[in-house]
Amino acid sequence: MLDAVVKLLTTLALGAILGAAAVWRLHYGPLYVSGPAKVIDGDNIEIAGMNIRLAGIDAPELPERNGKECRKLLSRTECIERSAYALHWRVGGEHVRCWITGSSALSAEGEFDRPLGVCFHGETELNAWMLQECHAGLPDDKAHHICRYYPVVDERTCKQQDAPVARLEAG
């Protein structure tokens, strides 16, 4: 009798897990996507028609989006261009693979904006690379990001490397 109950509970749990995975895939798309990457801006890429935001980072937004701004070490336009250009230089058109880790914040309509992903170009994790190279910062609100360990980027190091500093502040 106990064996039958254990088997039933195991079957139900497995069914619930598989069902949740199927619903996730139908609603949010695949958990893994790969292919040639088109750079949208410093923290967004498009692969196979899917716009993916790089999880755990925040890069300067394009001017028309009225987003965040770089600190005054560089002009706003320079920061935006350098951040997007750095990502484009690294991956533009080349094969990138992303693990979808969640979805970004809710829009005004109550829909999730786009998938969040941890993306790789070869063996390089792009999320961490953008931070290490000072082209992006940590988001102010990490509640909607699935964050792992990212090294803290020191602005002095960025200056010594003559790299653009894309530290963010409210815009």
Automatic annotation (TrEMBL):
<dbReference type="InterPro" id="IPR035437">
    <property type="entry name" value="SNase_OB-fold_sf"/>
</dbReference>
<protein>
    <recommendedName>
        <fullName>Endonuclease YncB(Thermonuclease family)</fullName>
    </recommendedName>
</protein>
